[in-house]
Prior knowledge:
Layout: H1 6-10, E1 12-15, E2 18-21, E3 27-32, E4 37-43, H2 47-63, H3 71-87, H4 89-100, H5 104-124, E5 132-133, E6 142-150, E7 153-157, H6 163-177, E8 180-184, H7 191-203, E9 211-213, H8 218-227, E10 233-237, H9 240-252, E11 257-261, E12 267-270, H10 276-288, E13 300-304, H11 308-321, H12 340-355, E14 359-362, E15 377-380, E16 398-404, H13 407-415, E17 424-426, H14 430-439, E18 446-447, E19 466-467, H15 472-476, E20 480-488
Parallel strand pairs: 7-8, 7-10, 8-9, 10-11, 12-13, 12-17, 13-16, 15-16, 17-18
Antiparallel strand pairs: 1-2, 3-4, 5-6, 6-20, 11-19, 14-15
Amino acid sequence: MSKHDQVDHDHLHYIGGEFVTSAGSASIEVVDPATGLRIKDVAAGDAQDIDRAVHAARDCFDSRAWRKIAPADRANTLWTLADRIAAHTDEFAELETRDNGMPLMFAKATIASLVNGLRYYAGMVTKLHGQTADISGNGRDLHAYTQSEPVGVVGSITPWNAPLGVLINKIAPALAAGCSIVCKPAEQTPLSAVRLAQLLDEWKLFPAGLINIVNGYGHIAGQALADHQDVDKLTFTGSTAVGKKLVHASAQSNLKRVTLELGGKSPLFIFDDADLEKAITGAAMAIFANSGQVCFAGSRLYIQRGIFDKVIEGVARVGAAMRLGSGLDPQTQMGPLVSAQQMARVLSYVESGIGEGAELVCGGTRHGEQGFFVSPTVFANRDRKPLTIAEEEIFGPVVTAMPFDGLEELEVLANATPYGLGSGIYTSNVSTAHRAAKLIRAGNVWINCYGILDKAMPFGGFKQSGWGRESGFEGIAPFLESKSVYTLL
Protein backbone atom coordinates (compact mmCIF):
# COMPACT_ATOMS: atom_id res chain seq x y z
CA MET A 1 0.00 0.00 0.00
CA SER A 2 3.00 2.30 0.08
CA LYS A 3 2.80 3.47 -3.54
CA HIS A 4 0.09 6.01 -4.28
CA ASP A 5 -0.12 9.20 -6.25
CA GLN A 6 -0.23 12.62 -4.57
CA VAL A 7 -4.03 12.79 -4.36
CA ASP A 8 -4.16 9.43 -2.61
CA HIS A 9 -1.56 10.48 -0.06
CA ASP A 10 -3.73 13.37 1.06
CA HIS A 11 -6.38 10.91 2.16
CA LEU A 12 -4.07 8.46 3.94
CA HIS A 13 -2.10 8.22 7.17
CA TYR A 14 1.46 6.95 7.47
CA ILE A 15 1.34 4.09 9.96
CA GLY A 16 3.71 1.16 10.42
CA GLY A 17 5.79 2.08 7.39
CA GLU A 18 2.90 2.24 4.91
CA PHE A 19 0.02 4.46 3.89
CA VAL A 20 -3.35 3.39 5.24
CA THR A 21 -6.87 4.70 4.88
CA SER A 22 -8.72 6.33 7.75
CA ALA A 23 -11.05 4.31 9.91
CA GLY A 24 -13.70 6.95 9.25
CA SER A 25 -14.58 9.25 6.38
CA ALA A 26 -13.96 12.66 7.98
CA SER A 27 -11.66 15.11 6.24
CA ILE A 28 -9.96 18.44 6.89
CA GLU A 29 -10.30 21.32 4.45
CA VAL A 30 -6.92 23.01 3.96
CA VAL A 31 -7.21 26.71 3.14
CA ASP A 32 -4.67 29.17 1.72
CA PRO A 33 -4.67 32.00 4.30
CA ALA A 34 -3.50 34.52 1.72
CA THR A 35 -6.62 34.00 -0.41
CA GLY A 36 -9.13 32.24 1.83
CA LEU A 37 -9.53 29.63 -0.89
CA ARG A 38 -9.46 25.86 -0.46
CA ILE A 39 -6.22 24.13 -1.39
CA LYS A 40 -7.33 20.52 -0.87
CA ASP A 41 -8.72 18.13 1.73
CA VAL A 42 -6.72 15.69 3.83
CA ALA A 43 -7.87 12.75 5.90
CA ALA A 44 -8.97 13.41 9.48
CA GLY A 45 -7.95 10.49 11.66
CA ASP A 46 -9.83 9.41 14.76
CA ALA A 47 -9.16 7.31 17.86
CA GLN A 48 -8.97 4.09 15.82
CA ASP A 49 -6.29 5.54 13.57
CA ILE A 50 -4.33 6.77 16.58
CA ASP A 51 -4.64 3.35 18.21
CA ARG A 52 -3.29 1.66 15.11
CA ALA A 53 -0.37 4.09 14.97
CA VAL A 54 0.44 3.63 18.64
CA HIS A 55 0.44 -0.15 18.25
CA ALA A 56 2.79 0.17 15.26
CA ALA A 57 5.10 2.39 17.30
CA ARG A 58 4.95 -0.03 20.23
CA ASP A 59 5.76 -3.01 18.03
CA CYS A 60 8.73 -1.16 16.57
CA PHE A 61 10.00 -0.12 19.99
CA ASP A 62 9.55 -3.51 21.62
CA SER A 63 11.25 -5.28 18.70
CA ARG A 64 14.29 -3.03 19.23
CA ALA A 65 14.44 -2.61 15.45
CA TRP A 66 15.88 0.89 15.81
CA ARG A 67 17.73 0.52 19.10
CA LYS A 68 19.69 -2.55 18.06
CA ILE A 69 21.29 -0.59 15.21
CA ALA A 70 24.75 0.62 16.23
CA PRO A 71 24.69 4.19 17.61
CA ALA A 72 27.06 5.45 14.92
CA ASP A 73 24.80 4.04 12.22
CA ARG A 74 21.71 5.61 13.81
CA ALA A 75 23.57 8.92 13.94
CA ASN A 76 24.44 8.61 10.25
CA THR A 77 20.82 7.85 9.40
CA LEU A 78 19.58 10.98 11.17
CA TRP A 79 22.27 13.00 9.40
CA THR A 80 21.13 11.52 6.09
CA LEU A 81 17.57 12.54 6.88
CA ALA A 82 18.79 16.08 7.50
CA ASP A 83 20.63 16.14 4.17
CA ARG A 84 17.61 14.88 2.26
CA ILE A 85 15.22 17.34 3.84
CA ALA A 86 17.71 20.11 3.08
CA ALA A 87 17.68 19.04 -0.57
CA HIS A 88 13.90 19.60 -0.54
CA THR A 89 14.11 23.03 1.11
CA ASP A 90 12.39 24.91 -1.71
CA GLU A 91 9.54 22.42 -1.89
CA PHE A 92 8.94 22.32 1.85
CA ALA A 93 9.20 26.11 2.14
CA GLU A 94 6.56 26.62 -0.53
CA LEU A 95 4.25 24.13 1.18
CA GLU A 96 4.69 25.93 4.50
CA THR A 97 3.98 29.29 2.89
CA ARG A 98 0.84 28.11 1.09
CA ASP A 99 -0.42 26.35 4.19
CA ASN A 100 0.57 28.77 6.96
CA GLY A 101 0.97 32.08 5.11
CA MET A 102 4.47 32.93 6.35
CA PRO A 103 6.82 34.76 3.95
CA LEU A 104 8.85 32.37 1.84
CA MET A 105 12.20 33.52 3.23
CA PHE A 106 10.92 32.95 6.77
CA ALA A 107 9.82 29.47 5.73
CA LYS A 108 13.25 28.72 4.28
CA ALA A 109 14.86 29.87 7.51
CA THR A 110 12.69 27.46 9.51
CA ILE A 111 13.73 24.60 7.20
CA ALA A 112 17.39 25.49 7.71
CA SER A 113 16.84 25.55 11.46
CA LEU A 114 15.16 22.13 11.57
CA VAL A 115 17.95 20.67 9.45
CA ASN A 116 20.45 22.01 11.99
CA GLY A 117 18.38 20.46 14.74
CA LEU A 118 18.47 17.04 13.10
CA ARG A 119 22.23 17.28 12.73
CA TYR A 120 22.63 18.41 16.32
CA TYR A 121 20.70 15.39 17.62
CA ALA A 122 22.42 13.07 15.16
CA GLY A 123 25.61 14.01 16.99
CA MET A 124 23.94 13.32 20.31
CA VAL A 125 23.21 9.65 19.52
CA THR A 126 26.76 8.55 20.26
CA LYS A 127 27.01 10.60 23.43
CA LEU A 128 24.24 9.07 25.54
CA HIS A 129 25.66 7.05 28.38
CA GLY A 130 25.42 6.48 32.09
CA GLN A 131 28.03 6.80 34.77
CA THR A 132 29.64 4.70 37.45
CA ALA A 133 29.18 5.61 41.09
CA ASP A 134 31.26 4.99 44.20
CA ILE A 135 28.71 4.01 46.83
CA SER A 136 29.12 3.19 50.49
CA GLY A 137 27.38 -0.18 50.36
CA ASN A 138 27.23 -0.49 54.15
CA GLY A 139 30.42 -2.51 54.19
CA ARG A 140 29.56 -4.54 51.11
CA ASP A 141 31.63 -4.47 47.94
CA LEU A 142 29.33 -3.15 45.21
CA HIS A 143 29.73 -2.05 41.64
CA ALA A 144 27.06 0.50 40.69
CA TYR A 145 26.33 2.33 37.48
CA THR A 146 23.51 4.05 35.62
CA GLN A 147 22.15 3.56 32.13
CA SER A 148 20.22 6.00 29.93
CA GLU A 149 17.38 4.28 28.13
CA PRO A 150 14.62 5.57 25.83
CA VAL A 151 11.31 6.34 27.48
CA GLY A 152 9.37 4.32 24.88
CA VAL A 153 6.51 5.37 22.59
CA VAL A 154 6.21 9.13 22.16
CA GLY A 155 3.08 11.03 21.18
CA SER A 156 3.73 14.36 19.48
CA ILE A 157 1.15 17.12 18.99
CA THR A 158 2.42 20.15 17.07
CA PRO A 159 1.10 23.64 16.22
CA TRP A 160 0.39 25.54 13.03
CA ASN A 161 2.72 28.52 13.41
CA ALA A 162 5.87 26.61 12.34
CA PRO A 163 4.45 23.27 11.16
CA LEU A 164 7.41 21.30 9.86
CA GLY A 165 9.97 23.00 12.10
CA VAL A 166 8.24 22.01 15.32
CA LEU A 167 7.37 18.54 13.98
CA ILE A 168 11.03 17.77 13.31
CA ASN A 169 11.94 19.39 16.63
CA LYS A 170 9.97 16.57 18.27
CA ILE A 171 11.11 13.76 15.97
CA ALA A 172 14.85 14.49 16.21
CA PRO A 173 15.42 14.06 19.97
CA ALA A 174 12.90 11.22 20.19
CA LEU A 175 14.74 9.18 17.58
CA ALA A 176 18.15 10.16 18.92
CA ALA A 177 17.09 8.80 22.32
CA GLY A 178 15.90 5.53 20.74
CA CYS A 179 12.13 6.11 20.99
CA SER A 180 9.43 5.53 18.41
CA ILE A 181 6.93 8.29 17.73
CA VAL A 182 3.35 9.02 16.65
CA CYS A 183 2.92 12.53 15.23
CA LYS A 184 -0.35 14.46 15.15
CA PRO A 185 0.28 17.68 13.15
CA ALA A 186 -1.94 20.74 13.50
CA GLU A 187 -5.13 20.34 11.50
CA GLN A 188 -4.76 23.82 10.01
CA THR A 189 -1.39 23.07 8.41
CA PRO A 190 -0.97 19.39 7.46
CA LEU A 191 0.63 19.71 4.02
CA SER A 192 4.31 19.52 4.95
CA ALA A 193 3.63 16.51 7.19
CA VAL A 194 1.87 14.73 4.32
CA ARG A 195 4.85 15.39 2.07
CA LEU A 196 7.30 14.30 4.76
CA ALA A 197 5.44 11.00 5.07
CA GLN A 198 5.71 10.50 1.30
CA LEU A 199 9.44 11.06 1.38
CA LEU A 200 9.96 8.84 4.42
CA ASP A 201 8.16 6.08 2.56
CA GLU A 202 10.31 6.68 -0.50
CA TRP A 203 13.63 6.90 1.33
CA LYS A 204 13.13 3.87 3.62
CA LEU A 205 15.67 5.14 6.13
CA PHE A 206 13.91 3.87 9.26
CA PRO A 207 12.32 0.66 10.52
CA ALA A 208 8.57 0.37 9.94
CA GLY A 209 6.62 1.98 12.76
CA LEU A 210 9.43 4.18 14.04
CA ILE A 211 7.77 7.34 12.70
CA ASN A 212 4.00 7.42 12.28
CA ILE A 213 2.00 10.44 11.07
CA VAL A 214 -1.75 10.75 11.62
CA ASN A 215 -3.53 13.94 10.60
CA GLY A 216 -6.66 14.84 12.50
CA TYR A 217 -8.42 17.34 14.71
CA GLY A 218 -6.94 18.10 18.09
CA HIS A 219 -10.05 17.35 20.10
CA ILE A 220 -10.36 13.94 18.44
CA ALA A 221 -7.00 12.56 17.30
CA GLY A 222 -4.94 14.68 19.69
CA GLN A 223 -7.13 13.71 22.62
CA ALA A 224 -6.91 10.05 21.67
CA LEU A 225 -3.12 10.27 21.68
CA ALA A 226 -3.13 11.92 25.10
CA ASP A 227 -5.54 9.32 26.49
CA HIS A 228 -3.79 6.27 25.05
CA GLN A 229 -2.53 3.85 27.67
CA ASP A 230 0.38 2.68 25.52
CA VAL A 231 1.93 6.11 24.95
CA ASP A 232 4.79 6.58 27.39
CA LYS A 233 5.49 10.25 26.76
CA LEU A 234 3.62 13.20 25.29
CA THR A 235 5.36 16.24 23.80
CA PHE A 236 3.19 19.23 22.94
CA THR A 237 3.63 22.73 21.60
CA GLY A 238 0.59 24.99 21.67
CA SER A 239 -1.68 26.97 23.95
CA THR A 240 -1.56 26.89 27.72
CA ALA A 241 -5.26 25.99 27.85
CA VAL A 242 -4.74 22.86 25.75
CA GLY A 243 -1.57 22.04 27.66
CA LYS A 244 -3.55 21.90 30.90
CA LYS A 245 -6.03 19.50 29.31
CA LEU A 246 -3.19 17.23 28.22
CA VAL A 247 -1.75 17.16 31.72
CA HIS A 248 -5.18 16.13 32.99
CA ALA A 249 -5.42 13.42 30.32
CA SER A 250 -2.00 12.10 31.30
CA ALA A 251 -2.98 11.95 34.95
CA GLN A 252 -6.22 10.17 34.14
CA SER A 253 -4.63 7.60 31.82
CA ASN A 254 -1.20 6.23 32.68
CA LEU A 255 0.81 9.15 34.10
CA LYS A 256 2.72 9.46 30.83
CA ARG A 257 5.62 11.89 30.90
CA VAL A 258 4.67 15.29 29.51
CA THR A 259 6.76 18.05 27.94
CA LEU A 260 4.89 21.28 27.24
CA GLU A 261 6.02 24.32 25.26
CA LEU A 262 3.14 26.73 25.76
CA GLY A 263 2.08 30.34 25.43
CA GLY A 264 3.60 33.61 26.46
CA LYS A 265 3.03 37.30 27.02
CA SER A 266 6.62 38.36 26.75
CA PRO A 267 7.93 41.75 27.91
CA LEU A 268 10.52 43.79 26.05
CA PHE A 269 12.23 46.68 27.89
CA ILE A 270 13.89 49.59 26.08
CA PHE A 271 16.06 51.78 28.32
CA ASP A 272 16.83 55.39 27.42
CA ASP A 273 20.52 54.62 26.87
CA ALA A 274 19.78 52.00 24.18
CA ASP A 275 20.71 52.30 20.51
CA LEU A 276 17.22 53.45 19.57
CA GLU A 277 17.48 52.64 15.89
CA LYS A 278 18.26 49.02 16.68
CA ALA A 279 15.79 48.90 19.56
CA ILE A 280 12.90 50.24 17.49
CA THR A 281 13.55 47.78 14.68
CA GLY A 282 14.02 44.94 17.16
CA ALA A 283 10.82 45.75 19.02
CA ALA A 284 8.85 45.92 15.77
CA MET A 285 10.12 42.58 14.52
CA ALA A 286 9.63 41.00 17.96
CA ILE A 287 5.89 41.39 17.45
CA PHE A 288 5.36 41.55 13.68
CA ALA A 289 7.55 38.60 12.60
CA ASN A 290 5.39 35.71 11.35
CA SER A 291 2.39 38.04 11.81
CA GLY A 292 2.84 37.88 15.58
CA GLN A 293 2.07 34.16 15.55
CA VAL A 294 5.06 33.35 17.73
CA CYS A 295 4.83 31.97 21.26
CA PHE A 296 7.55 34.32 22.53
CA ALA A 297 6.42 37.40 20.58
CA GLY A 298 7.35 40.63 22.37
CA SER A 299 3.76 41.75 22.89
CA ARG A 300 4.34 43.84 26.05
CA LEU A 301 6.62 46.73 25.16
CA TYR A 302 7.98 48.78 28.07
CA ILE A 303 9.71 52.01 27.09
CA GLN A 304 11.58 54.23 29.54
CA ARG A 305 9.42 57.30 30.03
CA GLY A 306 11.73 59.94 28.58
CA ILE A 307 11.88 58.22 25.17
CA PHE A 308 8.35 56.80 25.14
CA ASP A 309 6.90 58.94 22.35
CA LYS A 310 9.97 58.63 20.13
CA VAL A 311 10.07 54.84 20.38
CA ILE A 312 6.37 54.21 20.01
CA GLU A 313 6.26 56.47 16.97
CA GLY A 314 9.21 54.56 15.52
CA VAL A 315 7.63 51.14 16.07
CA ALA A 316 4.36 52.37 14.56
CA ARG A 317 6.25 53.76 11.59
CA VAL A 318 7.93 50.38 10.96
CA GLY A 319 4.59 48.60 11.24
CA ALA A 320 2.73 51.00 8.97
CA ALA A 321 5.42 50.68 6.30
CA MET A 322 5.41 46.88 6.21
CA ARG A 323 4.30 45.32 2.96
CA LEU A 324 1.53 42.76 3.52
CA GLY A 325 0.70 40.09 1.00
CA SER A 326 1.10 36.49 -0.05
CA GLY A 327 4.17 34.87 1.41
CA LEU A 328 5.07 33.68 -2.09
CA ASP A 329 5.64 37.32 -3.17
CA PRO A 330 9.33 38.08 -2.50
CA GLN A 331 8.39 41.67 -1.62
CA THR A 332 6.10 40.57 1.23
CA GLN A 333 7.30 41.42 4.73
CA MET A 334 4.28 40.13 6.66
CA GLY A 335 1.86 37.44 5.59
CA PRO A 336 -1.68 36.64 6.70
CA LEU A 337 -2.87 35.05 9.90
CA VAL A 338 -3.38 31.32 9.60
CA SER A 339 -7.19 31.24 9.43
CA ALA A 340 -10.40 33.24 9.43
CA GLN A 341 -10.91 32.13 13.02
CA GLN A 342 -7.53 33.50 14.07
CA MET A 343 -8.16 36.77 12.24
CA ALA A 344 -11.49 37.17 14.05
CA ARG A 345 -9.79 36.42 17.36
CA VAL A 346 -7.10 39.05 16.83
CA LEU A 347 -9.59 41.71 15.68
CA SER A 348 -11.73 41.00 18.74
CA TYR A 349 -8.73 41.83 20.92
CA VAL A 350 -8.26 45.07 18.98
CA GLU A 351 -11.88 45.96 19.70
CA SER A 352 -11.29 45.10 23.36
CA GLY A 353 -8.29 47.42 23.52
CA ILE A 354 -10.20 50.30 22.03
CA GLY A 355 -13.19 49.62 24.27
CA GLU A 356 -11.03 49.60 27.39
CA GLY A 357 -9.52 52.95 26.53
CA ALA A 358 -6.15 52.11 25.01
CA GLU A 359 -4.75 54.57 22.47
CA LEU A 360 -4.63 53.04 18.99
CA VAL A 361 -1.42 54.37 17.43
CA CYS A 362 -1.54 52.44 14.15
CA GLY A 363 -3.22 49.49 12.46
CA GLY A 364 -6.09 47.73 14.15
CA THR A 365 -7.95 46.77 10.98
CA ARG A 366 -8.30 43.95 8.53
CA HIS A 367 -6.03 44.48 5.55
CA GLY A 368 -7.69 43.93 2.18
CA GLU A 369 -10.77 41.92 1.40
CA GLN A 370 -9.13 38.63 0.45
CA GLY A 371 -7.30 36.36 2.86
CA PHE A 372 -6.79 36.74 6.59
CA PHE A 373 -4.60 39.83 6.96
CA VAL A 374 -4.51 42.15 9.98
CA SER A 375 -2.49 45.35 9.82
CA PRO A 376 0.45 45.70 12.22
CA THR A 377 -1.14 47.21 15.31
CA VAL A 378 0.37 49.36 18.05
CA PHE A 379 -1.48 50.44 21.20
CA ALA A 380 -0.25 52.92 23.80
CA ASN A 381 -1.22 52.42 27.44
CA ARG A 382 0.34 55.53 28.97
CA ASP A 383 -1.25 55.04 32.40
CA ARG A 384 -0.44 51.32 32.56
CA LYS A 385 -4.02 50.58 33.49
CA PRO A 386 -5.22 46.96 33.38
CA LEU A 387 -6.01 45.99 29.79
CA THR A 388 -6.98 42.64 28.34
CA ILE A 389 -4.63 43.21 25.42
CA ALA A 390 -1.73 43.67 27.85
CA GLU A 391 -2.52 40.53 29.84
CA GLU A 392 -3.73 37.81 27.47
CA GLU A 393 -1.86 36.13 24.63
CA ILE A 394 -3.24 37.42 21.33
CA PHE A 395 -1.03 35.52 18.87
CA GLY A 396 -1.22 38.24 16.26
CA PRO A 397 0.58 41.46 15.22
CA VAL A 398 -0.63 43.50 18.19
CA VAL A 399 1.68 45.16 20.73
CA THR A 400 0.82 47.24 23.79
CA ALA A 401 3.43 49.88 24.70
CA MET A 402 3.69 51.15 28.27
CA PRO A 403 6.13 53.55 29.97
CA PHE A 404 8.43 52.62 32.85
CA ASP A 405 10.79 54.73 34.94
CA GLY A 406 13.81 52.53 35.52
CA LEU A 407 15.38 49.27 36.61
CA GLU A 408 13.68 49.43 40.00
CA GLU A 409 10.31 48.81 38.31
CA LEU A 410 11.41 46.07 35.95
CA GLU A 411 11.02 43.02 38.18
CA VAL A 412 7.40 43.73 39.08
CA LEU A 413 6.40 44.71 35.54
CA ALA A 414 8.17 41.84 33.80
CA ASN A 415 6.80 39.15 36.09
CA ALA A 416 3.22 40.40 36.45
CA THR A 417 1.96 37.59 34.23
CA PRO A 418 1.26 33.86 34.55
CA TYR A 419 3.64 33.32 31.64
CA GLY A 420 7.42 33.26 31.44
CA LEU A 421 8.66 32.27 28.01
CA GLY A 422 10.56 35.14 26.43
CA SER A 423 11.82 38.63 27.30
CA GLY A 424 13.99 41.35 25.84
CA ILE A 425 16.26 44.12 27.11
CA TYR A 426 17.73 46.97 25.07
CA THR A 427 20.41 49.01 26.85
CA SER A 428 24.02 50.09 26.30
CA ASN A 429 24.86 49.52 29.98
CA VAL A 430 26.19 46.01 30.54
CA SER A 431 25.44 46.15 34.25
CA THR A 432 21.82 47.13 33.61
CA ALA A 433 21.50 44.34 31.06
CA HIS A 434 22.66 41.55 33.35
CA ARG A 435 20.92 42.88 36.44
CA ALA A 436 17.68 43.01 34.46
CA ALA A 437 18.22 39.49 33.09
CA LYS A 438 18.47 38.15 36.65
CA LEU A 439 15.20 39.81 37.64
CA ILE A 440 13.08 38.41 34.81
CA ARG A 441 11.43 35.03 35.40
CA ALA A 442 11.46 33.68 31.87
CA GLY A 443 13.10 30.83 30.05
CA ASN A 444 14.69 33.10 27.46
CA VAL A 445 16.20 36.56 27.80
CA TRP A 446 17.50 38.44 24.77
CA ILE A 447 19.81 41.41 25.30
CA ASN A 448 20.03 43.95 22.46
CA CYS A 449 18.38 41.44 20.15
CA TYR A 450 15.20 39.38 20.14
CA GLY A 451 14.13 35.88 19.20
CA ILE A 452 17.53 34.41 18.36
CA LEU A 453 17.47 30.64 18.82
CA ASP A 454 20.16 27.99 18.57
CA LYS A 455 19.75 24.22 18.76
CA ALA A 456 22.55 24.00 21.32
CA MET A 457 20.60 26.19 23.75
CA PRO A 458 17.62 24.94 25.80
CA PHE A 459 14.26 26.52 24.98
CA GLY A 460 11.23 26.59 27.24
CA GLY A 461 9.36 28.62 29.78
CA PHE A 462 8.76 29.38 33.44
CA LYS A 463 5.34 29.23 35.12
CA GLN A 464 2.44 28.55 32.74
CA SER A 465 4.66 28.79 29.67
CA GLY A 466 5.46 25.12 29.92
CA TRP A 467 7.18 22.12 31.44
CA GLY A 468 10.67 21.04 30.46
CA ARG A 469 12.98 22.23 27.75
CA GLU A 470 13.54 21.60 24.06
CA SER A 471 16.87 21.83 22.19
CA GLY A 472 20.27 21.36 23.73
CA PHE A 473 21.02 18.38 25.96
CA GLU A 474 18.04 19.37 28.08
CA GLY A 475 15.92 18.71 24.99
CA ILE A 476 16.78 15.02 24.80
CA ALA A 477 16.65 14.32 28.54
CA PRO A 478 12.80 14.08 28.65
CA PHE A 479 12.97 11.23 26.12
CA LEU A 480 15.27 9.20 28.38
CA GLU A 481 14.88 7.19 31.55
CA SER A 482 17.75 6.66 33.99
CA LYS A 483 18.26 3.15 35.33
CA SER A 484 20.44 2.37 38.37
CA VAL A 485 22.20 -1.01 38.38
CA TYR A 486 23.80 -2.53 41.53
CA THR A 487 26.08 -5.58 41.49
CA LEU A 488 27.28 -7.29 44.65
CA LEU A 489 30.87 -8.36 44.06
